[in-house]
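Researcher: I'd like a structural prediction for the single chain below. Treat it as a standalone chain; there are no partners to consider.
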Amino acid sequence: MNIVVVESPAKAKTINKYLGHDYEVLASFGHVRDLPAKDGSVDPDADFRMIWEIDGKAQKRLADIARAVKDADRLILATDPDREGEAISWHVLEVLKEKRALKDQKVDRVVFNAITKHAVLEAMKNPRQIDAALVDAYLARRALDYLVGFTLSPVLWRKLPGARSAGRVQSVALRLVCDRELEIERFVTREYWSLVATLATPRGDTFEARLVGADGKKIQRLDIGSGAEAEAFKRDLEVAGFRVASVESKPGRRNPFPPFTTSTLQQEASRKLGFAPAHTMRIAQRLYEGIDVKGETVGLITYMRTDGVDLAPEAITAIRAAIGSDYGQRYVPDAPRHYTVKAKNAQEAHEAIRPTDIGRRPKDIAKVLDADQYKLYDLIWRRALASQMESAELERTTADIAATVGARTIELRATGTVVKFDGFLTLYTEDRDEPDEDDESRRLPAMSAGEALDKRRIDSTQHFTEPPPRYSEASLVKRMEELGIGRPSTYASILQVLKDRNYVRLEKRRLIPEDRGRVVVAFLENFFQRYVEYDFTANLEEQLDRVSNAEVDWRQVLRDFWGDFIAAVGEIKELRIAQVIDALDEALSPHIFPPRPDGSDPRLCGVCGTGRLSLKLGRFGAFIGCSNYPECKNTRPLAASADGNGEGGTKVLGQDSDTGLDVTLRSGRFGPYLQLGEGKDGEKPKRASLPKGTDPSAVELDMALKLLSLPREVGRHPEDGEPILAGIGRFGPYVQHGKTYANLEAGDEVLNIGLNRAITLIAEKKLKGPGRRFGADPGRPLGDHPAKGGPIVVKKGRYGPYVSHDGVNATLPNDVELETVTLEKAVELIDARAEKTGGRPAKRGGAKKAKDSKAKASKVPAKSKAKTTAKSTAKSKTSPAAELRKPAARKAPARAGTAKAVKKPAAKKPAAKKVAE
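Model: Treating it as a single chain, here is the predicted structure.
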């Protein structure tokens, strides 16, 4: 018997079918060991000795693998074909050695670049040993991440209250986001004007030409900086005569893009499909491990963690044949295309990401894929096919136009790009964050040099320069790859960590640094500058790549890093918090105290008029406070005010016409809120929270007044005439009728919900009856469990949506919506939960208590039961609440000589020693 160890149960099931009865395929469920989350797991003083701990969930799986291996002839380690996969194989082998499960069994390592029968059988014919250099690179990376995290994070906690942690690569990624935000804040807008002439040829065809020069001088985009200059040019052009100075047409070619790597897949899926990188990788993992197609589980794409752009020869042959079949031989280039990697530090030797069978077209398998799987597979299929198609042939025409006004000549230029042959563009175009005007396909009418042109219109348009855009997840991944920071397999997790720790937030698909993140970056840049430099991090990645190529010892890399790093940490430990605050106050000054339009001191306290505002650190993080505290208690969040000139983070939206009081938008501890006036005689002013998902910058006076007027009367209930109110409470928007409260559902809006909808929600809530706030949701059936049978349902729970099967409940991840969860995803979540809990159903407190009470009751003797029943009957006239409120009856003091009053102490058990005697 041959034992094969893979990572995922889905992959194990698929490969088992391919290998036959002589093989048993078992899953490790990912990593089985890791460094314990405590000090000392990596010991620099013992030459970086590492202490490993078996994951609690992996104990049973490793025991099963060990039992199977003891009776086997051969162990085949077939985890994923990357560094992490190599490390998992090494960990499994080390654990089996510790358990003494290995005797004379042969141990081999194989890798599957695709989960198809052909790929699996070919891989089994080419076994190898575990790559020690790849394992060393993993050990070095894991030790570095541990040492930085467990050494630097405690320094952050002590010096920066509210900071979560700092990681080796995530801190550099966070710096990229914060540096871009700083660029935006420092950006100075410039005014400029453009002039465009709409002209016509003698045949009546119109086109547009832009001003590019005058009087023999070139005019750049920003050269016309005022309306007066633009108006002067426009006056001359209105009376000018126009003719064609020259026309030049140049042929051009646009080549297709290479097939996807991990990074480019994440970028394009973000731009085209709106997928977060982590979501993209989860879907790709499922496509790689296998989808049921006509009763057979088949891997649809090759391995999705790679930075290689080459394709296997047989794949290229199949793709070229498919292009000829679907589009004709005109679209097949004379020779196959071969691509090279441009990314810094690219070193993976795997193929690019491609379909395992190019003949498996997206439309043919759409029925077996959910919506997101189909979108991603279609994207990968199109990119792979287009990468081997013929180039697009273009013709770019440039027409220079001369406008003559007396002795003065003004130059204009018109450009047009015509696609002569679409080539790969018939199938695939790549979206960009920054569209280029030159990419627009415009055709110029036929014209010749010397030809006179008619003026139809002259337009002058005012523009303002814009700051660089914030990073999207796609553009941040691209930038990290360009700088050589991190590895393709880590990008998704890095972004997720930054969001989970509230260092950044995602708004309109752009990454915005939170105040907490900016303080952490400022701290690191001031006191650990070297370790957040882009070049330093990239150079460290190069050293790790050298380890994987067996060019340098991994412990030497750690020694070189650790000496300087621990010395820097030692210096920071000696600093007082006041010194840290002063340094951060200075570093963050452009962000927290931007110049005021009137030129006044931005640090002057607007409440007391004499104090100075500065950075403070509290238990909940950083904030701005007045130097006259406690006499002046003016504080505000770290971010500058909403309108850039308000005080205390306050933005005045306008005045309430009824009261004449200011309506303001403010930032509080629990987020943005609205306030009416300032309150008098110690009374609190009226306030209202913004509904979840509302952009504070989009709130205007009309909306603010409506929110401040809540709760509002929606109408009267037709049964009893009582009012139905709508408002926002502790648990979000609601409607209320009497003592019945019903939460609004997705799509309902508190400001405009109608009477009919409100009555429906109230009725549904009453049908659910009393109980928990969310009621007893019967759930939406998804189908039966394919392996165990029985229905699977998705429900709304107190702590969020979840899927349930036979008593096993699994919470839905944040990126999976209740309305769109599929049966396949539900099975995956339930199986993972069942594995974690050993298949035990969810605990129910009430059932447990009832069971315990029943068990206790069964132990009570019959006489006692009778007495208890009698006592209960006698006391039933008094309510339980009243009984609880009664003070305990005092016992009368015992009289001397009264036998009944004397209570004998319970007989003590003899000590163990005496019993032995």
